[in-house]
Amino acid sequence: MIKRVGMAGDGLTNDAKKFLYQGKPYYLNELIETTPLNEDELKKILKKFYFSSCKKIVAERITGYQTQLRVKPKAIEVIESRTKWGSCSSSKKLAFNYRLAMAPVEVIDYVIVHELCHLLHMNHDRSFWRRVGSLMPDYKMKQEYLETYGHLIMSIPLD
Ligand SMILES: [Zn+2]
């Protein structure tokens, strides 16, 4: 069964039939073609939708930050993970969790900036956070969103 995504507060909803996309609730048929599919098929299509949306959003948003930071990742991929929003490998490959498509685009921007900054600072040291803050002074608000709603987004049973 696909569980509801709704939640109280922040303009979100408790409506059991709504799903998150870019931080806002939608009925399933506003996001994907829903008829005449069964639940397993719906799950598969919804997951595919989030995957391709995440890929598209990241590709669109990352270029400006790359220019600002003067970095270029070797590759960018969209992954499935229940623990990580993004990652940066020592070979300069960035990965982003497809579930980010459920979060507001500003939160995706934060994860993009965070991972891009790892191309310059591999650790979470002071200079790393200074760099993140120089591109995104309000990054703590985005971290708070992930702290508050992240577990919910991660727990939607699509895998
Ligand atoms: Zn990090």
UniProtKB/TrEMBL annotation:
> Which Pfam families is this protein grouped with?
YgjP-like (PF01863)
Note the superkingdom of the native organism.
Bacteria
Q: Where is the YgjP-like metallopeptidase domain?
A: 30-148
InterPro entries registered for this protein in UniProt: UTP_pyrophosphatase-like, YgjP-like_metallopeptidase
PANTHER family for the chain: UNCHARACTERIZED PROTEIN YGJP, UTP PYROPHOSPHATASE
Q: What is this protein called?
A: Uncharacterized protein DUF45
